Amino acid sequence: MARRYDPERRERIIEAAIRIVGERGIAGLSHRSVAAEADVPLGSTTYHFASLDELLVAALRRCNDNFAQTVRESAYFADPAAGLADELTRLLGEWFAGGRGPMELEYELYLAAFRRPALRAVAAEWADGLGELVARRTDPATARALVALLDGISLQVLLTGGDFDAAYTREMLARIVDGGGTRDTGPPAV
């Protein structure tokens, strides 16, 4: 029997892994579940990805690439005259408007790096990539702080099931962009 040429198979396997993690979580991911979802022989998954960690790296990289493309194509970093805190708040609001599912998937893959060292470098790519885009509008240290705040707000909203609070987000981002804000320095001197 001749081997069937299927140049899209690897891509279908990655997309199937992303769907499975999105629906069932990482615990639901196996070579067998991915093969069934992608409608490929089980041997194809192990041929392209010797371990589940390799498959998770590919899935996380795909999510990172999709996110980076979305950010690059958005107008949020194009206008240097627009307020950075306003633009980042709009961007985060847009992510939440797209639904929690995609964000939960990305964060599940991102946070899996705690237990899966193979994912750590790829997880860091997300923060580094966004930091580089933000640094075009500010300095690198401030960009890192802004990305950390965006991450923290996103995780809090996702974990608590709360609503995205644009006014709060904008205020906190502005404090970082503007170099601080009102600081509690203790009781006034007498």
Description of the molecule:
The protein is mostly helical. It has 9 helices and no strands. It has helices at residues 9-24, 31-38, 42-48, 52-73, 84-97, 100-111, 120-135, 140-160, 166-177. α2 crosses α3 (42-48) and α8 (140-160) packs antiparallel against α9. The termini are far apart.
Number of strands: 0
The outline comes out as: elongated
Q: What's the SSE pattern?
A: HHHHHHHHH
Biggest sheet descriptor = none
Assign the structural class, choosing from mainly alpha, mainly beta, alpha/beta, alpha+beta, or little secondary structure. mainly alpha
Radius of gyration: 20 Å
Query: Whole-Å distance between the termini?
Result: 91 Å
**Beta-strand residue fraction:** under 5%
Task: Give the helix level as a range of percent.
Answer: 55-70%
Q: Treating each run of at least 4 consecutive H or I residues as one helix, how many helices?
A: 9
Low-confidence stretches: 182-190
Overall pLDDT confidence: 87
Provide the fold topology.
Elements: H1 9-24, H2 31-38, H3 42-48, H4 52-73, H5 84-97, H6 100-111, H7 120-135, H8 140-160, H9 166-177
Helix pairs in contact: 1-2, 1-4, 2-3, 4-7, 5-9, 7-8, 8-9
